[in-house]
Amino acid sequence: MKVLLVNGSQHKNGCTHTALQEVAAELERQGIETEEFWCGNKAIMGCIGCGKCSQSKRCWYSDDTVNEFLEKVESTDAFVFGTPVHFAGTSGFIKPFMDRAFCSKASLFFNKPAAAIVSCRRGGAQGAFEDMNRYFTIACMPVVSSKYWNEVHGNTPDEVKQDLEGMQTMRQLARNMAWMLKSIDAGRKAGVQIPEHETPIKTNFIR
Question: What angle do CA 126, 132, 135 make, to 5 degrees?
Answer without folding.
Answer: 145
